[in-house]
Amino acid sequence: MTEKERVNQILALLDEHYTREYKCYLNHENAWQLLIAVILSAQCTDARVNIVTEKLFRKYDSLEKFAGADLKELEQDIHSTGFYHNKAKNIIACAKRLIEEYGGEVPSSIEDLTSLAGVGRKTANVIRGNIYNEPSIVVDTHVKRISRKLGFVKSEEPEKIEYELMEILPKDHWILYNIQIITHGRGICPARNPQCGSCFLNHLCPAAEVSASEKDKNKSVQEEK
């Protein structure tokens, strides 16, 4: 089997098990809400962010309210998401710039998005993929870890991983891959206890082969004792 055939088989199985439905795990009603939610999601679970934004977006129901927010008050509002000092400062600065330079609209280009306070390539690609349907690869912790296990990438740096995945994944899977891998990482392949034995990708995953061989080796050692 060629590497391209292996990649295509993995993608076909991901499609079969997780469908090709686009799904965003962060609750939002518009582009600027998603942008703020992604800023809050740094080093925080989507579930926690959704709990916080349920009240946050009712209290600050416009970009203008975020732009004019009291820093200390906003810090308290988002305290449970962690790193709240920087997040609050960035959210206020980002909202002000969106109003002053972009007429209250969230831009679509990677250059404009990453020029905003608190917005890196991951956040920018979430916006591009979910709001503007631009083929984009989002490299979060699940994508980084599982892509390395699958042998798709070798890099440790998210931006390099993004470019490596662009080389091997067809564009119609750039957005889907992140959605599917998040689901896979939360269910079958969590970092602490991956369920390789029941994984539908185990026959195509180098890491699963290593895990199986290590288990067999350990079993043999135990039997010899």
From TrEMBL:
Details of cofactor binding: Binds 1 [4Fe-4S] cluster.
InterPro entries: DNA_glycosylase, Endonuclease3_FeS-loop_motif, HhH-GPD_domain, HhH_base_excis_C, HhH_motif, Nth
One GO term (biological process): base-excision repair, AP site formation
An MF annotation (GO) of this entry: 4 iron, 4 sulfur cluster binding
Alphabetical keyword list: 4Fe-4S, DNA damage, DNA repair, DNA-binding, Endonuclease, Glycosidase, Hydrolase, Iron, Iron-sulfur, Lyase, Metal-binding, Nuclease
NCBIfam families: nth
Family of the protein in this entry: Belongs to the Nth/MutY family.
Protein's name in the database: Endonuclease III
Originating organism: Qiania dongpingensis
